[in-house]
Amino acid sequence: KMKVSVILGVSQMIVGLLLRFANAIHENSKVDFLCECVPMMVFMLCFFGFMDYMILYKWVNAIDNPPSIINSMIAMAMWGEDTNPMLGATLPKVLMAVCMLSVPCMLIPKPLVKYLQHRHRQSHSYAQIGAVPLG
Fold first, then answer.
1. Phi and psi dihedrals of 125, rounded to 5?
2. End-to-end CA distance of the chain
3. Helix, strand, or coil (residue 84)
4. How far apart (Å, rounded) are the C-alpha atoms in residues 15 and 65?
5. pLDDT at position 130, please?
6. N or C: which end of the chain has fewer CB within 10 A?
7. CB 67 within 8 A of CB 82
8. What is the DSSP string of 54-93?
9. CA of 119: how far to CAs of 34, 116, 122, 129, in Å?
């Protein structure tokens, strides 16, 4: 029951992200699309998608000594060594590195772009005010 709930929850979050993609496309917001939607989806798929993949892999394939998915996820997040890796030792580390790189991509670029757009709009509005003759 719990594994099905996890798969359904992650699926629901992915559908929510797809709606966010559609909203960014509808509003023609490249900043939202590139600086929020893409890094969120990368994070979601690399971390929670990998967890769902391990759940499904464990269901479909008969494994003699099945690894603990919880221990694998903890080892992945803590950069620890998984004692019984399901899909090799390097894949979780690569996925976690991608997850960690996606976080600054979510947090840093959009505020900078918005700030620069704001400054650009302010400088143009002051230039127009200065061009109007007073008196």
1. -70, -35
2. 77
3. coil
4. 34
5. 55
6. C
7. yes
8. HHHHHHHS--SSPPPHHHHHHHHHTT---SS-SS-SHHHH
9. 21, 5, 5, 15
Contact call for residues 55 and 61 (beta carbons, < 8 A): no
Tell me if residue 57 falls in helix, strand or coil: helix
Coil vs helix vs strand at 135:
coil
User: Tens digits of per-residue pLDDT, 49-89?
Assistant: 999 999 999 999 888 888 889 999 999 999 988 888 888 88
Helix, strand, coil percent content, the chain, rounded in steps of 5: 80, 0, 20
Burial of 34 (0-12, 13-18, 19+ CB in 10 A): middle
Spatial distance between the Cα atoms of 11 and 20, rounded to a whole number of angstroms: 14
C-alpha 53 chain-centroid distance: 17
CA-wise closest residue to 43 among 17, 25, 74: 17
φ, ψ of residue 118 to 5 degrees: the values are: -65, -45
Angle between helices 2-26 and 50-60 (to 10 degrees): 140
Residue holding tokens 């090799």?
88
